[in-house]
Amino acid sequence: MKVAFLACAALLVSGASAAVHFKETFDDTWSSRWQKSSWKKADGSAGEFTLSAGKWFGDAEADKGIQTGPDSKFFATYAAMDSAVDTTGKDLVLQFSVKHEQDLDCGGGYIKLIPASSADKMESFGGDTPYSIMFGPDICGYATKKVHVILTYKGTNYLIKKDIQALTDQLTHVYTLVIKPDNTYQVLVDLKEVASGSLTDDWDMLPPKTIKDPKATKPEDWDENEKIADPEDIKPEGWDDIPATIADPDAKKPEDWDDEEDGTWEAPTLPNPEYKGEWKPKMIDNPAYKGIWVAPDIPNPDFTPDDSLYAFKDLKFVGFELWQVKAGSIFDNIFVGDSLEEAEAFANDTWAKSKDGEKAAFDKGGTVVNHDGQAVADVLVVGERIAAVGLDLKAPEGAYVVNASGKLVMPGG
Ligand SMILES: *[C@@H]1O[C@H](CO)[C@@H](O)[C@H](O)[C@H]1NC(C)=O
Ligand SMILES: *[C@@H]1O[C@H](CO)[C@@H](O)[C@H](O)[C@H]1NC(C)=O
User: Fold this and answer.
1) Where are the domains of the chain?
2) Around Cβ 115, how many Cβ atoms within 10 Å?
3) Per the annotation, where are the binding residues?
4) Where does an alpha-D-glucoside bind (predicted)?
5) CATH 2.60.120.200 fits 18-207+308-354, yes or no
6) Ligand 1 atom showing the smallest separation from residue 348 Cα
7) Averaged in consecutive runs of 10 residues, what is the pLDDT profile of the chain (413 residues)?
């Protein structure tokens, strides 16, 4: 009996293969899978997604994604997953790549997973359509350069409290979100972890675990005065004898002043230049200072842990819903599944194969900025390393050449 049971368990483990819920690499057939939303169409402020590999890429076909255009428009498109996904007991891995080829000044670059319950609203899918997860970069000016991770819990959207920096260069980057049944998460950029932690702690989906004890009161003898008057500083003698004002020494009694009629003449007063103001002792550090009193933390009676924070029961659609001032972002290689390893293998097979070629293409003919100042030169990049800098370099066979004249190329950047 025992042997049979063990054998059975082993079978279960080996049979538990990774599930891929959705994969999209975008090719000529993409529009048969992706629906255009009618959002913002009526007032003419809706833009379009078009298939493009952009101006620099590693592989002209494989690197095609969907690109936003024209400028200052709203963009919305979505695709349905084969069946609704319930992540109970499973990891959820959401991954995609985006290239802000246009040097995005202001606009969204994120993806959304949308529940089956929004199905009847998808025809006009847009900013107000209820979603489950929103993930990816959002850039606007100098102030906003963040990676959003917004989770919907009991109908409310919660933003991650950590600041995760978005990359703002013009190359393709892979963004990966993992949400796990132990209520932890990971965010990876280009397959390297940039944030991780607890769903309970890094979002406000649940009330805080601890609160300041409302019953605690400041002890009577708690001294919050940082400075006190120096007891050894004594008022100099005669300080108070100096009047604030004096009679104007230059004033003269008018000729026609009649003491009997006008009363006794008095000279007008002036501020006394000798006057030093009210005496104040010197302030010194208070030896009894204890800092500002704060109530101690106690467990929050309103906090109840929720072990299923991570679970999304009916994920059905994958969508982009964006507003961009400067359009031109290219989205590609979307993955939704339950295995980070599988997602990584997919990124290895797509983004990782093209990234060096893309960077070489981007850098070709750029302006090199280094410690010698600026010089116009060609830059050949192989992998993460600059292989050559010089004028009129020969591009290696197969390299894509971009005229990057006027663009800044930062070695090591
Ligand atoms: C992806 O590529 C990296 C670098 O070559 C490698 O270390 C890693 O094992 C690969 N991952 C998978 C899942 O194939
Ligand atoms: C590259 O672009 C610059 C500026 O647009 C232009 O002056 C230059 O002739 C171009 N170079 C080549 C090789 O096309």
Assistant:
1) 18-207+308-354, 364-409
2) 20
3) 110, 112, 131, 138, 321
4) 110, 112, 131, 138, 321
5) yes
6) 1
7) 45 64 98 97 97 94 97 97 97 98 94 98 98 97 94 97 95 98 98 98 96 95 94 91 90 87 88 90 94 96 96 98 96 98 98 95 59 50 53 56 58 46
